[in-house]
Amino acid sequence: MTDQAYNFAYLDEQTKRMIRRALLKALAIPGYQVPFASREMPMPYGWGTGGVQVTAACLTPDDRLKVIDQGADDTTNAVSIRRFFQRTAGVATTERTTDATVIQTRHRIPEQPLAEGQILVYQVPIPEPLRFLEPRETETRKMHELEEYGLMHVKLYEDIARHGEIATAYAYPVRVEGRYVMDPSPIPKFDNPKLAGNPAIQLFGAGREARIYALPPYSDVVSLDFEDHPFTASKADHACDLCGSGSSYLDEVITDDRGTRMFVCSDTDFCAARQAQGHCGRLSPQGDAP
Amino acid sequence: MIEIQNLTKSFTLHNQGGVAIPVMAGAHLRVAPGECVGLVGRSGAGKSTLMRMVYGNYLAGGGSIRIGGVDVVTAEPRQILALRRAVLGHVSQFLRVVPRVPTLEVVAEPLLRLGIAPQAARARAADLLARLNIPERLWRLSPTTFSGGEQQRVNIARGFAHDYPALLLDEPTASLDAQNREVVLCLIEEAKARGAAILGIFHDESARDRVCDRLVDVTGFTPGLAA
Amino acid sequence: MTLMQNAITAAPLLSVQGLTKRYGPRIGCADVGFDLYPGEVLGIVGESGSGKSTLLSCLAGHQRPDQGRILFDGADVLAFSEAERRRLLRGDWAYVHQNPRDGLRMGVSAGGNVGERLMAVGARNYAAIRDSATDWLGRVEIAADRIDDRPSAFSGGMQQRLQIARNLVTGPRLVFMDEPTGGLDVSVQARLLDLLRGLVRDLGLSVVIVTHDLAVVRLLADRLMVMKSGRVVETGLTDQVLDDPQHAYTQLLVSSVLQV
Fold it and tell me: C-alpha distances in angstroms, B91 versus A152, B155, C198, C222?
């Protein structure tokens, strides 16, 4: 049940209207950062205030919400945002990617391919991909306007010069529909290929910076690279120690003071589903192994 | 090749009460291809002033200076630059170069500016430097540190690097020893032989007698000095 | 004679007419006009406040003049859209700042600084970009093994040479220079002047160079424009203006400096 002290999904209807307008504009101009009147939310900046506002503007009472943080449904950030919407919107929640209609995410795209009708909402700390090389906002806007994106490649050039390869491992810049260069939020570059041609609607919200941008379904999204240093979606060269998946993005976990490590799927739902299906990895409890 | 008619010049010193000093009036002379004309007249009579006007370094007050189809008096700066590049050479008394540039490059530069291949330009420069007895070990050094005589020879090599159809020579043999003086006089004779029109100032009388076909006394062009 | 013919029949690369910039009631520069031909170096001299810097910033598109026309290759630059103007600034035009910090990205390596203009015009092959950068560092006499160092680790003279390489890598036709040797030691200045002269000659660059240093223009400029109180008071061949100045102000300017 909705907590009677709040309007449905916390934000008042005028605010939602304003955000929805920004969302529509963002969908109409894929990759373009639309300014919006970001509201104070009952959580600190950096905890997903942008994503929460976008989610609030999208939710209907029939939606089923999933919230993940670095792929996990059970971390503090994910749990509190999920609880926030349970309380203020009364919507159903789920941990299963396939069951969710709206997924708010911090820094991952679920392993399970998304489908038409689903909405993926990203939390974005810094929406401006040119920021680190050109601190002047007036100048970066001009650069977007005029498609002056040479600077983005300077960043990649510096990577190769310094590390012998493009060392940018997350928030890897992409070009959308051959037009705007976009920061995909700090997802690992392993997830970049999933941005492209995705049947789901992808919405990006930056609360502190008051910017919204979006990828409509099936958008053309290309990761920037050089001809002789092509983009590669890398991951740790291991299989999941719990479900044995060799294709999912892995977290490295140090398990004791001697530096013993294990690799596990960062997508907890994906990992749990595989284990339930009987897949197992190097450290799966032996008794459960089929 | 060089034809001067009714040339006038005065200096106006704006910062000294605006006084105007006429220094030349009614100057006229012509130099044919293959001819060397020497300017004479006592010090201050305007020999250098006339030479500088011919080179476009001083602005003429009136009259004309025609060289290879260009009137220096009325020409645009870029026409004069083109003239200096291809047609009109000048050996001044002083070498003015960018510090640090090697001697060989200094001498080859007029050729490089004409678009001649660096290798050919440097070969020509080396040839001239060798003829003028500049030791090869100095070629990689800047001439700014050289002695007066060495600098003068570098200057001459630079002035003769390109076969200019017209040449201005200001005391080319001053401060040279007998051996190098002979080389310079030979260079002048060779230039004449290939058809260059030469206008020069020579204080060295025997040199003047040897290379000049005619002498022109500029005193006749100097207001107040004309007899 | 063909060279002469070429020099005389070619159309001006840059043609400026009646350029005027006011700052309220004050005049920045007034009614300035000149033609600059391919391969020509024009020096603009005058003391501080003479309007030479205002003129340069109007020419280079950093400020918009109140009146006048600027034609580049026959095209009216002031009628350009912002996009066209900026394309010009990273392609056919280059601007060398007095302070290399204004013209370099101090947080980006020397190679990245030189490569930026290439990447801006679409270069996407890392090895080719790096080869170009190495080549250009060599041309401005910076050792190839400094390619991954940041400009902050360079001396002032090296920074200035790096700025020049960064500007010239895309083969611009017109270069604006604002006191490029200012703030450098005399010996470093000489080296830079020599370098600039060679580049201008070998690349056939047209240059507009603003400076108060008459020795610099003597060595670099073909022609001079002398400015005072925002107006051009004298123009001509560099050596003619310096050796036989006609205007009272130029005479004062020339006689005020030590022998150049």
Answer: 55, 7, 22, 19
Instruction: Give the one of A148, A158, A162 whose C-beta lies nearest to C120's C-beta.
Output: A148
Domains of chain A in start order, with CATH, are: 13-223 (3.40.50.11310), 235-290 (no CATH)
Torsion from C-alpha of A240, A246, A247, A253, nearest 10 degrees: 20
What's the mean pLDDT when you consider all of chain A?
Answer: 93
CB < 8 Å from C in window 214-273 of A: 225-229
Mean model confidence pLDDT for chain C:
90
A271 is catalytic: yes
Task: State the smallest CA–CA distance between residue A157 and chain C in angstroms.
Answer: 7
Closest chain B C-alpha to C255 CA, distance in angstroms = 10
Tell me the percentage of chain B whose pLDDT exceeds 70.
98
pLDDT in tens, chain A (290 residues): 556 677 999 999 999 999 999 999 999 999 999 999 999 999 898 889 999 999 999 999 999 999 999 999 999 999 999 999 999 999 999 999 999 999 999 999 999 999 999 999 999 999 999 998 888 999 999 999 999 898 999 999 999 999 999 989 999 999 999 999 999 999 999 999 999 999 999 999 999 999 999 999 999 999 999 999 999 998 889 999 999 999 999 999 998 899 899 999 999 999 999 999 999 999 887 644 44
* Averaged pLDDT, B112-135: 94
Q: What is the pTM of this model?
A: 0.85
Show residues of chain C in contact with B12, CB under 8 Å: 246
Q: Give the minimum alpha-carbon distance from C219 to chain B in angstroms, rounded to a whole number.
A: 7
Query: Which chains border C (3 or more CB–CB pairs < 8 Å)?
Result: A, B
Q: Which DSSP state fits B42? A: S
> Does C3 reach chain B within 8 Å, measured CB to CB?
yes
Q: Is A31 a catalytic residue?
A: yes
CB contact under 8 A, A160 and C121: no
3-state helix, strand, coil in chain B (%, to 5): 40, 25, 35
CA–CA dist B62, B26 (Å, integer): 9
Subunit contact A228:C127, Cβ cutoff 8 A: yes
Count interface pairs B-C at CB distance under 8 A. 82
On the question of pLDDT at C174 being above 80, the answer is yes
> C154 is written with which tokens?
């360079």
- In this prediction, residue A2 carries a pLDDT of 58
